[in-house]
Amino acid sequence: MKKLRGFLTLTRPANLVTAIADILAGIAVARLFGASALTYNNADVIYLCIATVGLYGGGVVFNDIFDVKIDSVERPERPLPSGTVNFNSAVILAISLLLTGIFFAFLCNTTSGIISLAISLCALTYDKWSKHNPVIGPLNMGMCRSLNLLLGISIIPSAINTVWYISIIPIIYIGAITLISTEEVRGGKKLKLYAAACLYGVAIMVLLFFVGKWGANLWAYLLLTAFGAIIFAPLVNAIITPEPSKIRQAVKVGILSLIALNCLWALMAGQWQLAIIIIMLLPVSLMLSKIFAVT
User: Fold this and answer.
1) Residue 212: how many other CB atoms lie within 10 Å
2) Which of 77, 92, 121, 259 maximizes the CB count within 10 A of its CB?
3) Are 16 and 56 a contacting pair, CB within 8 Å?
4) What are the distances in angstroms from CA 38 to CA 27, 33, 34, 35, 166?
């Protein structure tokens, strides 16, 4: 049982739920902008949800694999440095998850498959090299989430050509969270936290523009307001008192709030049923976050 928990901890289950929310949000947007080409079926939705779990899970497991020496000093309680999970077993798990993700993406369609390959490449690049760069690292991680949103949109491939530009939001937003996370072990430095706050502000302003452009309803404006308040509150606390615990809380809230962001996309697209399904994932993710580490 301890070993199983170790394997699950490596995949960060609460985060996997947010990845599924990305897919559903992408599908909602695709339904709005690709309505004339609604050729997918329910199986395709399932394929993409399985694909994102595999891709995200494989990516975060590889992150622990490449960080095993650092974690042995900074986070010895993690499954690999603690010996709960064997190193070779973790490698097999990571490879299996990525291949599973790619396989199911191609089952949906070729465009989805190509995007899954791009996600895998971006994830491995981040895990092995770019995360150590203060500029390229956050940009790289943002690209992973951006591509994941596009993976959902790719359920109707033609929709990507129309609405690809919304993928800039995950780049900005996740870039901010990644900046915050670089201080979660030692804390103390406020510069990156201020930079993250600026990126949050930019993301909110761009979202506000999209809400107006798409002619969204009052609920979308209310959710955007709540989303901004939720993500800024813990970040402000971390800026005031830049301790590791407060910074980790800001990261956790930022990641879990992706579900609210994805619900916002669905509301903006007028897809109420998908919006309800997405927001229902929030308590699931919150519950899992109390059992397994998010960062």
Assistant:
1) 12
2) 259
3) yes
4) 11, 10, 7, 6, 20
> Tokens in use for 172?
């900005």
Say how far apart CA 160 and CA 166 lie, in whole Å. Answer: 10
Please tell me the pTM assigned to this model. Answer: 0.96
CA distances from 18 to 214, 216, 219 (A): 24, 23, 21
How many domains is the chain built from? 1
pLDDT digits (tens, 9 = 90+) for 134-159: 899 999 999 999 999 999 999 999 99
Neighbours of 165 (CB within 10 A): 9
| R_g of the chain, CA atoms, integer Å | 18
Q: Which amino acid is at 134?
A: P
| Residue 168 C-beta-side C-alpha neighbours within 13 Å | 12
- Tens of pLDDT along 228-281? 999 999 999 999 999 999 999 999 999 999 999 999 999 999 999 999 999 999
Cα 100 to Cα 58: distance, rounded to the nearest angstrom = 9
Residue 169: CATH number of its domain: 1.10.357.140
**Pair of tokens at residue 209:** 């523009």
- Residue 55 and residue 138: Cα distance in Å, rounded? 18
Nearest by Cα to 230 from 275, 279, 270: 279
Token pair belonging to 32: 């709005």
pLDDT digits (tens, 9 = 90+) for 36-62: 566 778 999 999 999 999 999 999 999
φ/ψ bin of 243: left (φ > 0), alpha (ψ from -120 to 50), beta (otherwise): beta
Residue 46, domain extent: 2-291
Q: CA-to-CA distance for 234 and 219, rounded, in angstroms?
A: 24
Q: Are 269 and 32 a contacting pair, CB within 8 Å?
A: yes
The encoded tokens of residue 295 equal 């960062």
